[in-house]
What we know:
This protein is an alpha+beta fold. It has one domain (2-63). Helix content is 34%, strand content 24%. It is built from two helices and three strands; from the N terminus they run βββαα. It has helices at 38-42, 46-63; strands spanning 2-6, 13-17, 32-37. β1 and β2 form a beta hairpin. The model has no long low-confidence stretch (mean pLDDT 90). The structure holds zinc ion.
Amino acid sequence: MLKVYIxxxxxxxxxxxxxxxxxxLHCNHSLLPCNITYVAYSNLSEEERGKYKAYWIxxxxxxxxxxx
Length: 68
Ligand SMILES: [Zn+2]
């Protein structure tokens, strides 16, 4: 079962299986779990993924972090 994670630094999405540790492949920062399922994520279009990324960027600007 894959889970969707996002990097709080460069906002790259990554699909991570339960066993492996969630680190960003680009900046090596630990990732945050997204509130979206893998199935839902895989059904998103490129445009919708861009919007979802923008949502996380906005959320970090507002709260100072991506933490819940
Ligand atoms: Zn990153």
